[in-house]
Amino acid sequence: MADAASRLTALAEESLSQPLPVRIRAWDGSESGPPGAPVLVIRRRRALRRLLWKPGELGLARAWVAGDIDIEGDLYEALGRLAGLLWDRDPEDSVHPVRDPRARAFARGLLRIAGPWPPPAPPGEEVRRRSGPLHTRRRDRQAVSHHYDVGNDFYALVLGPSLVYSCAYWRDGGTLEEAQRDKLDLVCRKLALREGDRLLDVGCGWGSMAIHAARHHGARVTGITLSREQAALARKRVADEGLTDRVEIRVQDYRDVDDGPYDAISSIGMAEHVGSVRYREYADDLYALLKPGGRLLNHQIARRPEKDEDAYRIDAFIDAYVFPDGELAPLGRTLTLLEEAGFEARDVESLREHYALTLRRWVANLEQHWERAVRATSPGRARVWRLYMAASALSFEHNQIGVNQILAVRPTDDGGSGMPLRARRWTASAGDA
């Protein structure tokens, strides 16, 4: 096929009624598009067949994960340029594959270029088709395993020595490890942890929060996770720190914890897995596990409210390749459900810009250690994480999603909170004084 890039560019621009913001390089070596722009490399014609069979985001995701397409140049710039065409379009402006003649013409043109059928099989990194009710214990274990049991060595390369897989807390300058340490300490100070306090760390990951709370604040910590790989490394790290008398790591569902009351509960980057159908149950369970006057620190990504909440759809790429069954809720909805469970919300802090900075550092780590990361997991999995983290960084930067720390209290029987009158004393650490 001669000059496939020009044919594809013309076809896309006719369908979109606007110029393409990136160059295209096709499998035949041809190029077309604005000079100096990031290049969308289409390595194989089967990428087009993926789009024909799964139009939109999922088809593009399959092509990306399989290595059929790539970006040459600045990934963030390319994603920013493409966002207006792929993710940020008003649904009313989108072409309908049946009713809109532009969509039919685009499909016919793509079919002539795409080559012979049948459609390619999805990449092996894609989640297999799921059935049954959402957020049963079994289904949640499978979802968590898909996301976290991809190799501790892989995560160590991406996250760095801190092994913290949630938003860091940045000051001017500083390393990722320092920012993650400051985040863990911020959580501990918001929870007002004291020597001997019992802390439940829900979704404990590789044990970083548990270790920090025990080492620096004297807490006795129970960390729970559904990931066996996480738990194994967390236990080793606890033992290496000499903290086995203060920290216990369990492979356990939050719904099965029955050894309260705890003085405090931290839930950092875990509640996104709970789902709307279970969130009130999650809030009720944590409330029951706290003693009166105990504090909850819920650190959770939030999406912006939709005009029509009933029409909200989970991101196809995220659901298929990153967080199966994961759901983001608006901040207001989360606060309402926590209050319905009996909590009193005492403080909300947005860390949106902090997460954008954190994600860019993770992407840089992955790119720096790319060959080792591929060997530690798979080429497709590494490509998933690079795209997911870069796109997420842009989403935080553009205020499309946010992340918030909610400090809530289980009131005492007489309505007391135990909170100081100047609640934000924790924002000034020793290093800031």
From TrEMBL:
Residue intervals of the Polyketide synthase-like methyltransferase domain: 154-394
Organism expressing this protein natively: Streptomyces californicus
Keywords: Lipid metabolism, Methyltransferase, S-adenosyl-L-methionine, Transferase
InterPro entries xref list: CFA/CMAS, CMAS, MeTfrase_dom, SAM-dependent_MTases_sf
A Pfam family reported for this protein in Swiss-Prot or TrEMBL: CMAS
GO molecular function, one term: methyltransferase activity
Stated family: Belongs to the CFA/CMAS family.
Biased amino acid composition, Basic residues: 130-140
Protein name: Class I SAM-dependent methyltransferase
Region (Disordered), start-end ranges: 118-142
Any single biological process term in GO: lipid metabolic process
Superkingdom to which the source organism belongs: Bacteria
Keyword Nucleotide-binding appears in the UniProt entry: no
CDD domains: AdoMet_MTases (cd02440)
